[in-house]
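Q: How would the structure tokens look for this protein?
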Amino acid sequence: MTGINDIKKSALALGACDKINDVRTIADAINLLQTPQGREFALKTGFPTLKEWRSVADRIDMVDVFVDCGEVNISDCDFIAVGNSRVKASFSEPKQLYHIIAMHGA
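A: Here is the predicted structure in token form.
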């Protein structure tokens, strides 16, 4: 099982910015990933790896994060899909910019 300190150590080894030091929970790490800087870091480095996502999947209590969830239907929200997840998203009345992150085969 990967802990938050392991995730932070891995991110720092890849050149993460100092904001990673403020991360205390898996939710904090996911929120940081959803920032413009976090998305850029993930795109450049592939961080977090599929193995890291899978090791914390059972501790993710965020509704909008799907790790190996098969087919999922959602509407009107940002989301992250990882691994064996296929998300069908619908947006009824786009009034904002939605952020969609698909990683590691999703």
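The first strand starts at residue 65 and ends at 67.

The chain has a mean pLDDT of 90.

Upvote if useful.
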